[in-house]
Amino acid sequence: MGKHRKNPDRAQSHYSVGYGKPPLETRFKKGESRRGGSRKAGKSLAEEINELLREKVLVTEGGVQRRLSKRTAILKTMIAKAAKGDLRAADFLFRQASGAENAQVSDEAEMLTAEDLEMLADYLRRQERHESGEEVPASPVEPSDGA
């Protein structure tokens, strides 16, 4: 005889409950794990505003309905107000335009300065002399003591 001498019916059952074997009725169903993990990070205010400004709205222009983003619709409204003499709308538009220009200028500011270009030209001259076999004089540019 086997393990279940006292209760032979139990030996016939196809599933035993024990360590690592929970009762069938309390087990996870297929496709269900109940592991939620951590919460998603909330959107920042800028992300929410950009998401809302990307939504499309129906706008009637010259008797024709068009779907535009809210951002475009707002800009068209502000431009129309500025054209009619609304100083606040004009001020807003000019500030936005100058902000965009300043962002473009800061990108250009990362370009090489005159001093950088001079150093590169000096380096290239010395490299050419070195490759041709001439004696290379020391660089006329003195290193700065900025360290």
From TrEMBL:
Sequence segments annotated as region (Disordered): 1-44, 124-147
Biased composition (Basic and acidic residues): 24-35, 124-133
Protein name: DUF5681 domain-containing protein
Domain DUF5681: 25-98
The organism's taxonomic lineage, starting at the top: Bacteria, Pseudomonadati, Pseudomonadota, Alphaproteobacteria, Hyphomicrobiales
Signal peptide: none
Source taxon at top rank: Bacteria
